[in-house]
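This follows on from our talk about sequence and fold. Go ahead and set the record down below:
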Amino acid sequence: MALLLTLRSSPALRRAPLRFAAYRGFAALAEDVRSDSTFRIPVVSFDKWYNAKTPADKASVANEVVSAFKEVGFVYIKDHGIPSDVVDNAFHKSADFFKQSTEDKAKLAWEDPRSNRGYVAPGRERVTQSSDPAEIAALRAKAPDYKETMEIGRDWDATWKNQWPQEQNVPGFKSTMLDFFKRCHELHVEVMRSIALVLLKDEHWFDPKIQEQFHNLRLLSYPSIPRELLLAEGTSRAGAHSDYGSLTFVFQDAVGGLEVQNPHTLSWHPATPIPGTIVVNVGDLLMRWSNDTLRSTLHRVVAPTIKGDAPMTPARQSIAFFCNPNGTANIECLPTCVGTTGPKYPPTETERYIVGRLSATYS
């Protein structure tokens, strides 16, 4: 973690967002992403959204976000309102959790896709776009995802309970993650408002459809493993997939390995860690809501770039916050996204869709 904090404060890396955002300007984004040589994930500051002095200030930020989601499906958001010390503490507590013994972690094992809570041991999940259980089982046997995770939901749920480690085992873990969950939900509301401002001309349109906090906070630990295991055909730290909900917030350490597929060329590009930013991407339900106006783009986690011929990949940490609409929300084409050909997807319910995807993904 000392390395992570050092890299986050590096002057060279602090200038990285400027290089990314200024490459050719947001006005050229649609042109840039159609060539792999100029492909980029935009960097958007949310400061002007939070501190808007005029409606035009908010509109400018919202248009940048929606433009990125239309063309790429991904955006880096900086000045997002979650303090760096809060993010660092969440990473520290996550690392402490995974340092527990295998026996202690197994007591908190993930059990049910309807709950989607608890510890997931390495190899148990195999993320993929396939919905065929037999195909997924074969993929899991041949090329498992090399990671372990801890899944956390809203803590007041009347039916499904979070599985917390003993306080003496990981002091401060529960309070840290509950606070982080709340902060991520609050950011989710603001980003959805920016989308609503552009697509629906009403920034509060999504508010009553997301206030139940039907989200999933996922802590991820990718162990150091022989590099050759991640270079074999079909293997990765996390296979190519899209996410299920409305938005996903990804907090990365400095190791790297997250890749995004250019939706226009189908080539893969690194989502290079940029200190102080959150990687935000569109999920399937928001894509369905917007009738494909916004893209739920494929992404994966592969072996990071390493100088030389080091035999082992470095360990990697990340935190993903999967934002979802309310569990019973009806997801159907937004009235402003119908277009000339009508809705592309039948209506679905949030919980039904997500549980269906999870049921196929886990063993």
Notes: Residues 2-102+120-361 form a domain with the Jelly Rolls fold (CATH 2.60.120.330).
